[in-house]
Amino acid sequence: MQWSLILLSLMGQCSFFTCQLYDYRFIKENKTWDEAQKHCRKNYTDLATVSNMTDMKRVINSTESQDEAWIGLHSYPGNGSRKWHWSLPGVEFNESETRWESGEPNDYNGHLENCALMTNKNWSDFPCTASFKFICYNGTNQSKKTCHVISDKLSWSQAQNYCRVNHTDLISGLDQLDHCAESGSDMSGTNMWIGLFRDTWRWSDGSSFSFRYWESLSANDLVEGQGDKKCATTVLNRAGKWNFDYCNNTKPFICYSDKVILVNESKTWVEALNYCRKNHQDLVSITNLDEQRWVQERAKNASSLYVWLGLRYSCTLDFWFWVTDNRVKYTNWAPKGHSNDCDMSAAMEKAGQNQWFKKPDNEKFNFICF
């Protein structure tokens, strides 16, 4: 068989258009948060999970309603429930890789200190309502990454909003901090906000996405909600900004349907491809950063160290291709993680930075269908 015909046999059914990996559905029935959660889990996947601003725009576009609607974010108050997050979606906080000053974080004098300041590379927790200089970060492309120390003194949430409007986000993660230091940015001053915060909010489906889109609320409200107001809403007539309310109040709600399926069985790449096409649609393709974030969240639950993706190398034609016929324009290869070798396909690591590695087709891993 000619290689062109072999490639056509490998290519799936998403040719010439983008296959959405998940969809949102606005339900115009008034239910409590718990009732909405049960409805979504029975008929879809779960109450809406929102991972970034791209998702937020899709949520808004899913309905012409101007109502306030439940989403899948719930607060579990108490100091033991607080978790640290980086502000920039997709950058995960690692407890084993921090730069806290000795004795920090400490909620000094019993005050809630849920945002992080940096002084000469070291961090301390501090009340989010205080006003300080801050550091914004620009870009997701390596050649365009820049750092900006903003001298205006703002609260943490004001600083975050400023950075998201004028740059990309508050500086987030050790890689960005180190990049800024190595690029010559002057970050030697004292007390500058960085994009590190903690709160008690969790997604209904168990996702660890740190994206938050609150309206202007006090620092303590953002951490735990107001008293018994522990369930989050999106206010559609205010650009979808989030608020919270008593969970027993009734409102419309937004569900999502997840088309990304982690298969916890280890198979060769071809076996995985055949399984996905028989039982679902295809092995998953990743064409942008938003899809990468969504797929890597599912990959975390794999029982193997890697999961197969629908990306394969053609030795005869000398190129990598997605089996869905999507163009290979976005990649997340590990440094030296791939080369053009025969009988190789791409697998994502389940941990770390969820980077891609070339692996021999006959190795066996879990895999992700859609």
From TrEMBL:
Matching SUPFAM superfamilies: C-type lectin-like
Keyword flag Signal: yes
Top-level division of the source organism's lineage: Eukaryota
Domain C-type lectin as annotated: residue spans: 24-137, 143-256, 256-370
SMART domains, alphabetized: CLECT (SM00034)
Keywords, in A-Z order: Receptor, Signal
Pfam family, one: Lectin_C
Signal peptide residue numbers: 1-16
Protein name (record): C-type mannose receptor 2
